[in-house]
Amino acid sequence: MMKVLVANRGEIAIRILRACREMGLPSVAVYTDVDQLALHVRHADEAVPLGDRRNYLNGQALIEASRCTGANAIHPGYGFLSENADFASRVEAAGLTFIGPRPETLALLGDKLAARQAASQAGLPVLPGSEAPLPQEVPLEIARQVHYPVLVKAVSGGGGRGIRLALSPKDLAPMVSAARQEALAAFGNDTVYLESLVQDARHIEVQILGDGCGYVLDLGERECSIQRRRQKLIEEAPAPLISEDLRRRLCELARSLGRQLKYRGLGTIEFLVDGDGQYYFMEANPRLQVEHPVTEMVTGLDLVKQQLSLACGEPLALRQGDVVLRGHSIEARLLAEDCQNGFIPAAGVIQYLKEPGGPGVRVDSALYPGAIITSEYDSLLAKVITWGETRRAAIQRLRGALSEYQVGGIPTDLEFLLQIIDSPEFISGKFTTTYLENFQPAEVAPENELEREMALAAVLYLQQRAPSGLAPFVNPPAASQWMTAAWREQMHGTI
Amino acid sequence: MTLYTVSFGSRQYQVNIEGSHATVNGEPVKATFQTLNQYGLHLLQRGYQAMEFHLCLQDEETLQVLVSGRRLVAHIANPFRRKPARCQDAPSGTLTAPMPGQVVQVLVEEGQAVKEGQPLLVIESMKMQMQMRSPLTGRVACLPVAAGQQVDKGQVLAQVE
What we know:
The structure holds two protein chains of two kinds. By secondary structure, chain A is an alpha+beta fold. Chain A has helices at about 10-20, 60-70, 85-95, 105-110, 110-120, 140-145, 170-185, 245-260, 290-300, 305-310, 390-405, 415-420, 425-430, 450-465, 480-490, and strands at about 5, 25-30, 45-50, 75, 95-100, 150-160, 160-165, 190-195, 200-210, 215-230, 230-235, 265-275, 280-285, 330-335, 335-340, 345, 350, 350-355, 360-365, 370-375, 380-390, 405-410. In chain A, helix 3 (about 85-95) runs antiparallel to helix 4 (about 105-110), helix 11 runs antiparallel to helix 12 (about 415-420) and helix 14 (about 450-465) packs across helix 15 (about 480-490). Chain B is mainly β. Chain B folds into two domains: about 1-75, no CATH class; about 85-160, CATH 2.40.50.100. Chain B is built from no helices and 17 strands. A nine-stranded antiparallel beta sheet of chain B has the order 4-3-2-1-9-8-7-6-5, with no helix packed on it.
């Protein structure tokens, strides 16, 4: 029997642990010392402490945790070590199953230059760019020859990190050094290359699933153009406003690259599609994606269970003809970010929580009242995914679900998400990856009557919390009685 | 009579409580409140409308209000309260951490002349790096942090004179 160690945290660890439980597979969670009280720990049969906060990246500690619990497979989730070829090899060398593509596939796709070449060989159009890594000192002739604006990209980049945009020749050197520095910190490798920037393009990606022997199927595409600082914020399936012909071509190309790699498990082939319908291979993500639920909602498949059953050694029973898309699904990412304050990551304790529900609403969340949000890891708290017969119905459900979501104690991006999905561009489906850069949210009209009421409620509440709430207020002692009386009056009075 | 000023961002409301009678901006509030549980959940009733809201104390004069899909932050000032010395009046040459995180790089030294906007150090939080720039042109008078150090939100990173 396969026993799965989930080498991750947060909502994705919970997502994977739920699938294990559903399939009757015993599971093991891991946690660092800042995550002792994290929710994912309680979703597993067993949980192993890893110590230091950085140890989700400590391959040796994870293999050791598998050994001492008898786990014989490791699911890496996304981020952390999920695309690390060296880790995957060490897992396999230790006699364990790595739930993901083969280590050599990870190595190939992890090197963005090698991935470009592989894609090109499989017939996918690639963006014009440098065929070799940039030397440490950027030669002047390169800086002069390039067409600006140009992207400086880390060969081992991912998740939007290690990418900088150079607008002019004098920008190039500082941007190269900034990209190198971020890449070194995030991936331990500061090699970068140049790639043309496609302006006003959409980010469309295709989900593939392969049996590792050359059979690869596609599970349709996702539209992920709503991004901020190259981090996806809202994703949907299928992509709005693309022709059936383009959709078929992208899916066929993604399968073709998958077949060439004899791809094993789940993967995503990302494309940029410009205003003229020209499309280019961007990169391949050899792992489960954050936005995988929208594909699950429209295909009715459980992607994590597909991964787990392949890892158990079962043949891939699913055929392309079995994949039928139905309706429309949208995902919005709930982040611990202060959107009214420069999108600064926030940390704190969840003081109050109410999560949405109802038909066609799915919440993948790691929150609970009292949960401690640290700034150690990324700011994703939860995902709200809705399904509807049409895109319009899915948007309406998402609007309802986001309005129902209440998170007290830390700032989140909830209001920002609502402003985006209410914007005419989002509703029309006509947006590109730069949409949020110039996004001006519609002014939220203050609700004066409600604010008047809340002003009074706030004062009464503070008074009621005497003595601690009263302490900062230097008042005559009698005041506290007045306030309590006023509160009671408000509480029990009639209109 | 006790007068409080409650502000939501730039909008201010004068809350006047006299005995068991309360007005906001001089007018009575035609709603009643009910406490639903001991954890800050309340109910507002306005005519036949009922609306849930959550109140939670952030510090001694700040309350977070969750209501109707919105998160409001209420600052409450009381005229009878002695105003404590606040660091808001700190000299503008002070650079503080906007978020908790780790100092990854210190780009200047104490005593060094810097220009306004010049990056002084880099901090990282949730895998995001942020350059902290000098608030003014002058000299780095004090640099109490080192690379690798964890910092809390609001902690002083540098002092430029």
